[in-house]
Amino acid sequence: MIRLGLAILLLALGAAAPAQAATCGGDFQSFVASISREAAAQGISQGVIAQALGGVTQDQAVLSFDRRQRGTFNKSFEQYVSTRVGPGRIKTGQAMLIRHASLLSRIERQFGVPPQILVAIWGLETDYGAGDMGKLPVFRVLATMAHDCRRTELFQGELLAALQIVQRGDLGMRDMIGAYAGELGQTQFLPSSYIKYGVDYDGNGHVDLRHSVPDVLASTANLLKTAGWRAGGSYQEGSANFEAMREWNRATIYRKTIGYFADRLAGGN
User: Fold this and answer.
1) How far is CA 22 from the centre of its chain?
2) What is the pLDDT of residues 67-106, one digit of tens each?
3) Are 262 and 113 contacting, i.e. CB atoms less than 8 angstroms apart?
4) 78 flagged as catalytic
5) How does pLDDT run across 100-152, given as a tens digit for each residue?
6) Which of 125, 158, 183, 247 is catalytic?
7) How many domains does the chain divide into?
8) CATH number of the domain that 61 lies in?
9) Domain range holding 113?
């Protein structure tokens, strides 16, 4: 779903820009060479740079998709939620609450975010990890978007963050597959959010948001807590927690859908 919501989120998300941004537009390979030098200056190894950016090409389909995203949320809440929260997704979500009850309880104690909110986000984004996490090479996507002059500093920051994910050993190159803005994993983190909020909750030394359910759910909770989530508080529209979810998605209709879904998972009316 982040393919829909992220276009709005990206307009305001404060990803760290490179200290000396590469010049957008112009020859694409010259741009790649420039951003590669910036990555090396930030400590990314030549091996990682070569694997990620060697031979990378522009993807015009990504640019076309990005331009179509304006005004995605043009339905009423009732229309939108009816397409996102159905009986099957609720039933599976309730099963996930039971299956991961111990993990979710531990996360709630540490981060203050209730299980139903985390499972709602998880379900909406990728059907609890069983759905579409994206099929596009992340480095091709991010290099394409960074070269485009509309939001070059934002996406240069995302590209450098994606390189850092590989540099740290969190994901290998074959797992750097995502959606149309470079979102990764079961709850669709931008690379900069992956670096900023990712938690190694299974204790294996890596933040793996593609394969590790503990890492996925704890990292999502950490994002919300860092954004100001208040334990035990309401998450309905107008509350502090509803505002905290702006860090997840700035669109009001999407945040209302998270709350609605969470209530259905928890057995509310």
Assistant:
1) 24
2) 877 555 678 899 999 999 999 999 999 999 999 999 999 9
3) no
4) no
5) 999 999 999 999 999 999 999 999 999 999 999 999 999 999 999 999 999 99
6) 125
7) 2
8) 1.10.8.350
9) 77-132+196-265
